Amino acid sequence: MDSNLVTGDLVLCKVGSFAPWPAVVFPQQFLRKDVYRRRKAECVAVCFFNDETYYWDRPSKLRRLSKELIDEFLERAAASNAEDPTLVEAYEEARGFASLHEFLLQRMREENRMQDWDENADKGAKIEAGQDPFEGKKSGDKSRPAAVTKPKRERAAVAPSSSRSASSSSRSRSVPMSPSAASGRKHVRLDHAKRIEISMLLRRKLQTNLVQRETPPGIEEVKESHKLLGKISENMASNPDFFDLDALRQSKLHKLLKVIAGDDNLKEFHGQCGEILEAWKDVIAQLRKDKLKSQET
Fold first, then answer.
1. Residues whose CB falls within 8 Å of the CB of residue 219, separated by 6 or more in sequence, listed in order
2. Handedness of CA 136, 137, 140, 143 (dihedral sign)
3. Fewer CB within 10 Å, N- or C-terminus of the chain?
4. For the segment 130-154, what is each residue's pLDDT rounded down to a tens digit?
5. Rounded CA separation 290/99 (Å)
């Protein structure tokens, strides 16, 4: 472990029972306000690869992620074909990390926060790595830390990312699926964030039950997974859409269902996954278009 971290450093962050996940030490001035409000003393913010969530942790608990470690993991994953596909993608994104400036710019685009970029980045200047990760936002920002709020994750942390309002251990036991009707702008925002949080928790639980394991799922995991997929189906007819563009973009739940639907060892789930993916086909197509457009720019 290394406590001398700076912004732009690549690290492995371990949350609860989840596997250590590649992340980058994130400059606080570019955090979303909902994430920034959850900051804790002596903790730095990290942004996970292939997950679009954030987490607050002490530097001493983070492990530096070197190019050698990334290469070793990906070589091992290619040889065994037993690693979680989303974790492999995260390592691949970490290997492709070129600069903090480009990473930040891409995140701002994905989160539709280019106005924040314009307000916090000096025009024409490149955002350099190596800054103090404890430095907060400018004094004009009215956000305040929530002193007693525990960092959350679904791997994490802050909604809608990290999402992400129970502890990690309680999230692994249950997934709520009854968002309240929203009234007023503030309640609409909270409801939207909750939908994203639940989408990510569903992805995490299904992934743990069916994909991220060395042995076949047991009877209880199979029963729970059928129940979770049933809950997804039940909530697809809600208005507004429960699993909207943002929910799938941030949770990548559709990607996990594609993995399950393509695994011959999980054939009993193929029907449920296929029906859900068919219902989401328009949203998935839009996500592809958005990704291509983002890559072009």
1. none
2. negative
3. C
4. 999 998 887 554 444 433 333 333 3
5. 22
